Amino acid sequence: MAAIGNRGTVTEASGFNAEQDVQKLREAMKGAGTNEAALTEVLARRTIAQRQRIKEAYKQSVGKDLADDLSSELSGNFRSVVLGLLMLAPVYDAYELKSAIKGAGTEEACLIDILASRSNEEIRTITAFYKKEHGKTLEDDVCGDTSGMFQRVLVSLLTAGRDEGNKVDDAQAVLDAKDIFEAGEARWGTDEVKFLTVLCVRNTSHLLKVFDEYKKISGREIEESIKREMSGCLEDVFLAIVKCIRSKPAFFAERLYKSMKGLGTTDSVLIRIMVARAEIDMLDIKAEFKKMYGKTLYSFIKIDDIFLIHCGIRL
Length: 315
Known about the structure:
elongated, mainly alpha, about 70% helix
């Protein structure tokens, strides 16, 4: 029942007893109103694996689904966070992807955040659950809601075919850097397929070498060239891929900052990252946030008066 990562802020609760937790949850939902602090005390301080035990124990003792009961008791962002906490990681990702696709319009940022940052195994698990749950492949739904080169990048990521080894071919890295340069900065118009072929296929170590070689050739960081050569969702997805290759914690720190910066808060982004990364790498995301913005993530969320502090996703 340990956490799914070793750099999270949510860790396995000692002395865990699922039956006792079920009793606390039932008490919190009893009568008029709901004791949200009591719900938080239990659910936000247990790992995903421990919450699955709680869900099983709840169904055994009550004969009802815990998520259904909480959904009817809660509302708004608090409900979104709590229901997210009850899901297995790939289930939550699949749920977020489906929510981003269904209805009018598509939340492209969600597709990018998830597909650009997950490992091959994670993507395979997400797509398998998605097909089982919805009767359609995630690729079919993505293709139905996106188009052009942006769609092709997402489809490439969905194949979960990135090389995940550590081998760096120095000669190939130089060729890859030249191919990207000649596909963008060195020509009129941009051959986006060359960017896709390199950025969606090569392993992390190799790509870091490619980025170094690219700067030698072009005099610019590859992120700068992507911004110059592309726009819209295609620019966003290629930048996300590059940033995740460099540092996933830094990528998520930037996404959190931008979700809270300025007027209002992009709650869906804030909730998704906080819930999804809480027991994977939130410690590293916190450190990157402080390094990048000079403020703690905790203080930034407090300033924004966000329910996540109340929900106890510990920072």
